[in-house]
DNA sequence: GCGTATGATTCATG
DNA sequence: CATGAATCATACGC
């Protein structure tokens, strides 16, 4: 029953009472006529289903119907839509803009390869670490990112498709219904906007979770920096040689660090790390490093001896030892 | 598995 | 900003 009234757009017509408008629309029809029609419409709810159907049909065929419809549309526009109009403004959501920017920056939503590799390269640069396993992590990261990217795009497409499908469906429905109840094109437009808003909020969730996934991936990738990989033997040898031969002042200059880095195939900051760790650990437990110290002292001495022998010069290498760091005690077989 | 070694990170300091 | 100190987290050798 209630359906009938709603079908005729009478749901919220308690305040229809604008006789002037109706009169103007009726183009000189007697007001009595309008009153009759309204009376009939209102009475439909009290009739049986069959009676109501018949009445509806009769009213639909009434010559006044188009005029009445347009009036009802107008009234609806003024009341319902104006109420809704208050909450109409939707400024470009800062949240979604942030998400969009981030997805773009991470290379998830941008152009195919460029963004992705750029982000990965940036991450790799941030990692600033060993170039050997860097490529492995790099490709791993890229693969994961591509996966996220693919899911994101397929989901997005799905949403978009669903949105347009649903919009079409609703629009068709409303258009169809507009034959039986007063629906203005503006209202349809508004409904479409509402649907789009709803879908974009779903999209935002997708974007948000994608962002989260990227962040997790990224943090895991950056954490990989901590995945310690020992320097190769030759590198530690070079570093130790320098350290023990400069035990009095084991603070390599920037140039020295660069050279050491180049020799060892590591970065300058890794050299700094190494020396930082070495100094503190050496100082903390000199005894433990005694053996090592002697070993390298011998080694450098031998090297120096070789060099001087090659140069056929007898000046013994100066063992630089006079600084804050305690000297190793040389064992007899060290022969020094 | 466990203890130690070791590279990296963090935080305070000057 | 370089360094020291503490700490984290993994690698490595047993």
Shape: rod-shaped
| Amount of helix | over 70%
Which stretches are low in confidence, meaning pLDDT under 50 for 5 or more residues running?
Answer: 1-17, 113-136, 316-323, 330-336
Q: Element order, helices and strands?
A: HHHHHHHHHHHHH
Radius of gyration: 41 Å
Q: Into which percentage range does the β-strand content fall?
A: under 5%
- Oligomeric nature of the chains: single chain
Average pLDDT rating: 72
| Straight-line distance between termini | 111 Å
Largest sheet: none
Pfam families: Homeobox_KN, PBC
DNA-binding region: 224-286
Organism: Denticeps clupeoides (denticle herring)
Region (Disordered): 1-31, 313-336
Please characterize this protein's 3D structure.
It is a single chain. The chain is mostly helical. 71% of the residues lie in helices and 0% in strands. The protein is built from 13 helices and no strands. The structure holds a DNA duplex (14 and 14 nucleotides).
Give structural attributes:
336 residues; mainly alpha; rod-shaped; disordered N terminus; disordered C terminus; DNA-binding
Summarize the helices and strands and which ones pair or pack.
Elements: H1 2-7, H2 19-25, H3 31-43, H4 49-60, H5 65-85, H6 94-105, H7 112-127, H8 131-177, H9 185-223, H10 233-245, H11 254-264, H12 268-284, H13 286-310
This protein binds a DNA duplex (14 and 14 nucleotides) through residues 129, 223, 225-231, 236, 251, 269-270, 272-274, 276-277, 279-281, 283-284.
Structure, briefly:
This protein is mainly alpha-helical.
């Amino acid at each position: 029953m209630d359906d009938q009234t709603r079908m005729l757009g009478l749901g919220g017509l308690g305040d229809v009472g604008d006789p002037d408008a109706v009169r103007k629309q009726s183009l000189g029809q007697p007001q009595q006529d309008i009153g009759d029609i309204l009376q009939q419409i209102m009475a439909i709810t009290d009739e049986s289903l069959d009676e109501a159907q018949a009445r509806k049909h009769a009213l639909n065929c009434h010559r006044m119907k188009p005029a009445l419809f347009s009036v009802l549309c107008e009234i609806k526009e003024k009341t319902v839509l104006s109420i809704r109009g208050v909450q109409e403004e939707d400024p470009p959501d800062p949240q979604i803009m942030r998400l969009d920017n981030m997805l773009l920056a991470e290379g998830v939503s941008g152009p195919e390869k460029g963004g992705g590799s750029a982000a990965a390269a940036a991450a790799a640069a941030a990692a600033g670490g060993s170039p050997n396993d860097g490529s492995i992590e790099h490709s791993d990261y890229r693969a994961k990112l591509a996966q996220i990217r693919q899911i994101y795009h397929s989901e997005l497409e799905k949403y978009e498709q669903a949105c347009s499908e649903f919009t079409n469906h609703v629009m068709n429905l409303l258009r169809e219904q507009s034959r039986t109840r007063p629906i203005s094109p503006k209202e349809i437009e508004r409904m479409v906007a509402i649907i789009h808003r709803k879908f974009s909020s779903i999209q935002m969730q997708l974007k948000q979770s994608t962002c989260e996934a990227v962040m997790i991936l990224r943090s895991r990738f950056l954490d990989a920096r901590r995945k310690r990989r020992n320097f190769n033997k030759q590198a530690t040898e070079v570093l130790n040689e320098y350290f023990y031969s400069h035990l009095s002042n084991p603070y390599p200059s920037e140039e020295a660090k660069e050279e050491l880095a180049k020799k060892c195939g590591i970065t300058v900051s890794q050299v700094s790390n190494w020396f930082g760790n070495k100094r503190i650990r050496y100082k903390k437990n000199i005894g433990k490093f005694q053996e090592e110290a002697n070993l390298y002292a011998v080694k450098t001495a031998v090297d120096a001896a070789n060099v001087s022998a090659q140069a056929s010069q007898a000046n013994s290498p100066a063992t630089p030892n006079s600084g804050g760091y305690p000297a190793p005690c040389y064992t007899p077989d060290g022969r020094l």
